[in-house]
Amino acid sequence: MHTTPPEKYVVLYDGHCRFCVGQLKNLLALAKPGAVQALSFQEPDVLPRFPGLTYDACMQAMQLITPDGRVISGFEAAVQAVATRTLLKPLAYLYYLPGVRHLCDWLYRTVAARRYRILGKTIAADGCDGGTCALHARPK
After folding, report:
1. Looking at the domain assignment, is residue 74 inside a domain?
2. Per the domain annotation, does 87 fall within a domain?
3. How far from each other are the two terminal CA atoms of the chain, in whole angstroms?
């Protein structure tokens, strides 16, 4: 899949998920400094910048948009973000070894499907529910 090319790598993550926010910090620490911009797809102005990307796809997995407009999802998105750092690029190739990719992708899908149960949402209990207020209404 392709979308509007950004100036640098962009990772779209769930900014309402405490687990995702914490893991994003780890991912950015491993990536080349300044090479990856992180954006919460939950913010109203983010998804319209990347035609073709849907709310549902972003809810299922983190999305990495490369400077040439390619869209990479899930664990592979993390691998490619880490590969922006030259010293870690050889380690990123391990993901593509037979069996490793399937195992990593399965683990990613399993955690992603349960992420709100792990650490909860960042929206306060007395705030919105992430889908009904004007600020966080699900894009159509």
Report:
1. yes
2. yes
3. 20
